[in-house]
Amino acid sequence: MEGQDVNSKDEMLPVDGPGWSYVDGVLHCDGMSLEDLRRSLKRNYGHQGSPAHIYSHSTLVANVKKYTNALSPLGERGVLSYSLKANNNLRVLEALRQAGVNMATTVSGNEILMAMKAGFAATNIIYNGTGKRRWEVELAIKYGVLLNLDSEFDARLIADVAREMGVRARCLFRLNPALNANTHPYLATALADSKFGVEFHQLEKVLQAVRTGESGGEEHVTVEGVHIHVGSAVSRTQVYADIARAAARTLREFPPQIRERGWPRASTINLGGGLNIRLSGLSGKNEERPATPEKLVGAILPLLPEGSTLLLEPGRSLVATAGVLMTEVLGMKVNGERRFLMVDAAMTEVIRPALYGAHHPVTHVTIPSSQERAVMDVVGPVCESGDFLAHRCMLSPSPSSGDALVVWATGAYCSSMASNYNLRPRAIEVIVKAPDLYTVVRRPENFGDLISCYM
Ligand code: LLP
Fold this sequence. Notes:
By secondary structure, the protein is α/β, with parallel strands linked by helices.
């Protein structure tokens, strides 16, 4: 626990993104000082101005460009679909669409509605779901959304609803290729015993369900291709080559009757999302370097059947590095061997450390003049021992109450997984575009919001 000197360069930028820089020791987002932003939010929102999710517009755009550049050799047959679940802020969605994202991948009726609200054409929306409800399927079919067939019962429901509505449902088969993506067990979705998708040998049965529905629905479903998503936080390129092979094989060996049934153009290969992000710096560990979009697409391209369309649906790698959570120090205490830095953010804003043991680096917004550092656990006010934002951070040993910190890489799966536990209101969200240009894109919740659903 002794204070020690660190090279302050090490603690500066744990993520790669053009929007982030330290200028004269103060963290800036797209040219705007986060100390200035903090003062401005405080002026306008009082205590509700902190904690705050801050998004860098230029980093969002740069993340999109990495994918669109990688997919460019395919022309119109290379499609980028953003997985809304990573961050469903309406204005973030709009920014991604304007930056060049073609489609939106959704997992609920409300995500479909949100994607449409953000300007995605319904026919450019994909609806995945292991347990779709009838109203969600009706909504998707009514607007021409592309649905994933995830099981026999799912196929039956989709065929039925389409028949009742007298239209055709556009579908992909979600295949479970029984592959280990080498990720956290909660983030693996294509192990042999995962709940997602259909095993290759069951495709025939699912086709049968499409054909019969409850009372005959074959002409009401068009199968356009195959979908595989092996999991999230995947670092290895090899995994993508493996799933590309599995998808190509499925299209090749698609039960022959498919071709006879008027679905000869089943040629879409959706290889899901999952690419991890690279974090460096504070932890002292050398994290595995995740593949880049360029490497990922490079591994897939030679394996694609001729004329097929490749769809990728990343979430994390488009938004995680574009976001930080800015939070304020409330105080410091020492219990036993541990030094706790208590801040005003908690597991309610960033659940990932508690849920997956995820590592989110934490740094000072203003680098302290002294280079002395101590090992601290950054924790929040929630009444749970699992409420921590980061363990073993190297931070100033004598922070003052009111000092600002940022938790990095919180653009994905943080605000979208937030909760109101302990009646904590959801945090304000801000997009910064230029030194003096920021927009509040989600107002902070207040007690009125929290009580409004009780009857
Ligand atoms: N496609 C499908 C079918 C998915 O299930 C997912 C994520 C994605 C695409 C996007 O994956 P990404 O590129 O974001 O890895 N809450 C967890 C992540 C759960 C991901 C669930 N599925 C976390 O905080 O790490």
